[in-house]
Amino acid sequence: MQTKLLILIVVIFSSCTCREAHLTKDEREWFSAYQKGQQLIFKSNLANMDTITITDKVERYGNKDCNWFEIGSVQNNMINIDLKTKTCKNESYCGGGISISKDKENERSFPSFSLFGLIYSKLF
User: What is the mean pLDDT of each run of 10 residues along the chain (124 residues)?
Assistant: First the structure.
């Protein structure tokens, strides 16, 4: 009985290790051109212009505490860029962002975009 319990404990603890999923060079390329404080100027097909400022750029890993029981064993690599428009006619459309999250090591990740109330993600 003690041997079975010991084997069970060893199996549980050996499966409790977390793995970091790292973004590839190609996945990072979407974000390498942008820096905090940078301004981007856009001109619409109607000749309207707006300036978008990059207010923050953060790279981090999720699941820091390796909560494998509730979240899982992967510590996903994420990059987020926060954007703020200069012209703001509706508060809900003033900010936006670009983000990417590597949740599985062997699968390609794609960025998600949100701006002016519009969202694009390959997940949807």
Answer: 63 64 91 93 88 94 74 85 86 86 87 86 74
Read off the tokens for 108. Answer: 């390609």
Element (DSSP H or E) covering residue 122: none
Sign of CA dihedral 82, 23, 62, 64: negative
Rounded CA separation 42/75 (Å): 36
Tokens of 8: 């069970």
Q: Answer for the pair 82, 56: CB distance below 8 angstroms, yes or no.
A: yes
The three-state (H, E, C) secondary structure of 68-120, written as one string: CCCCCCEEEEEEEEEEEECCCCCHHHCEEEEEEEECCCCCCCCCEEEECCEEE
Q: pTM higher than 0.85 for the full model?
A: no
* CA R_g for the chain: 20
**Phi, psi (rounded to 5 degrees) for 40:** -115, 135
Contact 97, 89 (CB under 8 A): no
